[in-house]
Design brief:
150 residues, alpha+beta, Immunoglobulin-like, 2 domains, 4-stranded antiparallel β-sheet, 3-stranded antiparallel β-sheet, 1 helix
Length: 150
């Protein structure tokens, strides 16, 4: 019996708090109007999105220094400095006159200083765009153009 009385007392307190909140909200609605409330909701949404973006730890791209060269219809990537495991990067090599492909190619090897990685071996004579992306952050590591001469 005592527990039932406690439950009802808590329920009455909760209902009174809900009524107070309703009074406050109706006052705010009268003072701000629909435009003000909409602006407040949108601002809250934008601020919340920014907080979620930074809280999820998108992070930074590991520092690497890269160079691209084309020799005899082969486009090669040379790693000058920095390291990234093969599972953490992917790349695109495409003719700059067309839209880029949708699917990224998986990394053929780990990026380590001094490593030379072949990105495309059957390149026709034209100008290609090379894009390298860090998979965990989805940020570009490197982007450039290279011309294959025939």
């Amino acid at each position: 019996m005592r527990k039932i009385k406690e439950i009802f007392q808590r329920l009455r307190r909760w209902i009174s708090k809900v009524k107070e909140i309703k009074k406050i909200l109706s006052h705010i609605r009268r003072q701000m109007g629909i435009a003000g409330i909409s602006l407040s909701i949108m601002s809250t949404f934008v601020i919340g999105s920014v907080i979620v973006y930074y809280a999820t730890g998108m992070g930074e791209v590991p520092p690497v220094e890269l160079s691209i060269a084309a020799h005899d219809n082969v486009i090669m990537l040379t790693v000058l400095d920095g390291e990234i495991p093969a599972g953490d990067w992917e790349y695109l090599v495409f003719d700059e006159r067309v839209n880029p492909p949708i699917m990224w190619d998986p990394a053929p090897a780990d990026m380590e200083p001094g490593e030379v990685i072949v990105l495309k071996s059957d390149a026709r004579p034209t100008t290609y765009r090379v894009q390298i992306r860090h998979k965990p952050t989805l940020k570009f590591i490197f982007e450039t153009k290279v011309t294959v001469e025939g």
